[in-house]
Specification:
The protein is an alpha/beta fold. The chain is built from 13 helices and 20 strands. The strands form 5 sheets. Strands 8-7-5-3-2-1-17-18 form an 8-stranded mixed beta sheet. Strands 9-10-11-12-13-16 form a 6-stranded mixed beta sheet. Helix 4 links the parallel strand 7 and strand 8. Helix 3 runs parallel beside helix 4. The protein is globular.
Amino acid sequence: MKKKITSSFILLFFISLFTAKAQMRIHLINIGQGSATLVEFPCAAVLIDLGGENNAQFNSTDSLKAYLRDFFDRRTDLHNTLQCVYITHPHADHANTHAAGYILDSFKIKNVVTDGLEQGSGRHGQIKLHRAVQASEEDDSADNDIGFEAVVTNEIGATGFTNAVIDAVDCPGTDPVITILWGTSATKPAGWTDDDFDNENFHSLVIKIEYGSSSFLITGDLEDKAQKNLVAKYNSNNMLDADIYLVGHHGSKNGSSQELLSKVTPKMALMGVGSADRQLSWTAWDYGHPNKTILERLQANLTESRSPITVQAGTKKQTFGSFIVSKAIYATGWDGNIILEADTNGNWQKASKLVPSLVNINTATLSELLTLPGIGETKGQAIIDYRSGHGNFTTIEELDNVPGIGPATINLLRPYVRL
């Protein structure tokens, strides 16, 4: 009983401290090759995209489920409510149908914002959300209605587009501002080919979130040709300027043009990308993500630094080389789950204590292994002993050979470990 009282007190204290500081937090969730971003405010939370990598070595839906469960266990004051769910475009690495079903079954969704499209590899996830919106209107109670907006670029003005659905968060003291800057193009813009116009990436939502003087920009998978149109649309103002940039198209060579970065002028960058260790189809390894040229471009444009880290950068599909990241580029493929937090004055920091960094189980010390969920001293030492006797692990699944570790523990550890 004493333990429970102490834990509850700490939880309530942490929530009170967060609210008192009036912070915004960006949670870039490690779902492998894909994107899922939870944005946490003192009074609410919103989710941007919910798709990722699913294969024999990684299950993004399980990772998303675990992260959201842990988050709402901590933020009990939010009552399992997502104030809005935004899907940038209907591709499977942004709109997974199983993940869409999970959030609809597990949480109260107040609003949904999409580009309105119902084709693409992730169409089933987006359609599931669209149908849930329609079903919410079928009973007589307006309390159950899910607000909805399908954003069309042609209807967006020179300062973006917002309304009570898009900007559904209203916190006392500091009211966040959420604006859509790009959506579906109803007519083919000049310079686009028919293939461009048929590519769902070109219709990605571009979302800007402002919290006082702090700002965050998400461009989905908008490709460089469409980015040229985006930059031209806001060339006369600073609507694209942001402190934090979620790197477009998972670090693809066509996802972050110099023209766009010159308008964004980011301090730090986040990247939803898988680990290059998983040499399977539809992975970061298969695509060559993140591209070396993009990492070089980010290094030249970001103003904040980080402790240098050597990562794998793609030069083409399935081909990588070592690259030293020294600017503030944080990627799920090498950092695991990432949280950045900001106050209303534009001050940002990486909240490393809230989530463990990716742990290399082939080199980790006992103290590093103890940061993993459910790994105490006995299991941690067993991992080290097994490694010493049998050599390095070649797959995460080999942990099943370690005494005391089985499939359930492996699934729990999967988002937090690497080889």
